Amino acid sequence: MRAWLAALTIATWPVLAEAQGTAALVADTVYLQENDILVAEGDVQVSYEGTLLSASRITYDQSANTLAIEGPLTLTDEDGTILLADSAALEDELREGILTSARLVLNRQLQLAATEIARVDDRYTQLSNTVASSCDVCNDSDRPLWEIRARRVIYDEVEEQLYFDRAQFRIMGVPVAYIPRLRLPSANNERSTGLLSPRLVFNSDLGFGAKIPYFIALGPYADLTLTPYIASGTRTLEARYRQNFTFGAVNVAGAFSDDDIVTDDQRSYLFADAAFTLPRDLLLEIEIQNVSDRDYLGDYDYASVPLLRDRAKLSTAGRDGMFRAEVANYTPLRSDDIAIADQLPSVVADAYIERRADIGPGQLTFGLDASAIERESSADALGRDVAELGTFAEYRTRRTFASGLVLSNQARVTAGVYKVGDDSGFDDVARSSAAVSTELRLPLQKSGPGGSYHLLEPVIGVAWSESDDAVPNEDSNLVEFDEGNLLALSRFPGDDRIEQGVTANIGLGYTGRFEDAELGLTMGRVFRHDADADFFPGSGLDGTASDWLTSVSLDWASFDLGARALIDTGFDATKVEALAGYSGEGYGLSGTYLYLDAEPLENRPDDTHEISLAGNTRLGRHWTVSAGGRYDIDTDGIDQATFGLSYQTECIVIGLDASRTYYRNDDDEDPTSSITFAVELLGFGSDAVDESYRTQCRG
């Protein structure tokens, strides 16, 4: 142990005294015998380069080059390693030696007690008749929850590995396993090849089984984890590969299965993503997703996604502009989408470049955009393919008057050409649009004591826009009316649809900051001269007057609330979203509420009305319980339920997690259940122990 050698070498005080005074020796008495024997007695404290040695007496014989230390002695280094012993003797230039009745504590976690500890070759520490455990015991008669007994343990300080010879694993003092040779990472080891904690699992489709992960360190910045998953209904190998570079990172996950669900073929999946920084501040992102069949991810709880996406994206952004180019391929997984897969966009590509320049009192933004969508079907309209190339320019000004009134103006023009295939309803067309808007807002603020304030901000805006020739709508089918687009020129999410005519937008915002809370309120509405037929009834934007948009946010100590609602002219809510959470000492609770009116044109034939709850609490010092669920109010049934129970101390984590999912909208799907049981021994590897779980001794 480097710290051991460094600290004990301090005893060679006559030599170190000439070496820039980097060591310190404090004792009740320090004297020389026969001119070459240094003796320090009584509460001896020696410090050297972050290492501290405490002992009753130190004797250094310079002529024999030996060191004797009388204890009880304690040696602590800056890495958290602690060595305790009754006595110690070193020789051979202080590189080798023996400590008796010693105990080694690594990173203040794993403790190794031995009858004798020997120092070998300035690298290895050999412990004889050893007991290793990271569990605290309150008195000598208590047994640790778990321990490893071995005839011999060798600690390699360079590789940070522990090698056990004739190891016996015990639980509460009872032998449960014998391992002739065992290697484990020390508490100072951040990455080490070897087995990880196994997990027992149950799945209603796959039966009982076990997952036994094996971690392979491929260097300081790369690793591979292989996890055999053996159950009564499956033989699976899971894999995960990760690597970091100076210019990016790669993450790959996958699995290969031979199971009883699909008997005539093997099943597999592969998910990969990577990101790399390139010259000129470009960022390249790559994503690959592949699966053998649509049910595989759900059967094994690997992921819950409605579609697969293979994607490559190149982008950069700065103060004066941005650039983005992306191409993606989509594969649907939902049964309803699979039936019309050839009619859904399979390949989508787009590119966008934008520049900004300060001109006169405002800022000019201009750029180009291009996009293409391809479907596999060649059926008329259902297999429509579209390519678009466009340009735009926008000018904004902002002025604040002495009264605090803020005036903002905006003008925007666009032009583009569309090439349409497999749709007789559209010809190749060129389209242009123009829009102008002006907005007035008056922030009114009142300040209070302790930094509190009230800010009230009424806003009114008027806009006009016009566009010629209709084009296929590929990017603006789903419209979300929220605080972000209440005052926008157009509330469509894409460019294929543009709000037209004269609109008036009104809004009122309030922000209040108090001693331990912050409250935000927003209310707004959109009025039109003529109704826009491209807004569906369920969007809240149809007709000449939109629904009222209301939102509230509250951050109060440990409580958070965010809610948004659309309220029609009859004061009935058409959309409600709410999220709340509370976090206290030892417990937490969160919940969501969602209500959406039915809208067939948005692929929502029925009302959506559900509530989700999740919570966890500490039951005493070591136990934690959690539970959650999603409940469908309209159908009066549970969609999903989860439960978790864990026991944790400073030396072990035992976890039990269970879930059950109900497919009540699909009569052909039976409910599925899964249970996972895992045990992890703490003290190996570099993970820090949560001190709130540490065992406390009474008395």
From TrEMBL:
InterPro entries: LipoPS_assembly_LptD, LptD, LptD_C. Keywords: Cell outer membrane, Membrane, Signal. Residues 266-623 form the LptD C-terminal domain. GO terms for cellular component: cell outer membrane; transporter complex. Residues 1-19 form the signal peptide. One of its GO terms (biological process) is lipopolysaccharide transport. It comes from the Bacteria. It is found in: Cell outer membrane. Involved in the assembly of lipopolysaccharide (LPS) at the surface of the outer membrane. Belongs to the LptD family. PANTHER family: LPS-ASSEMBLY PROTEIN, LPS-ASSEMBLY PROTEIN LPTD. Component of the lipopolysaccharide transport and assembly complex. This is LPS-assembly protein LptD. The gene is lptD.
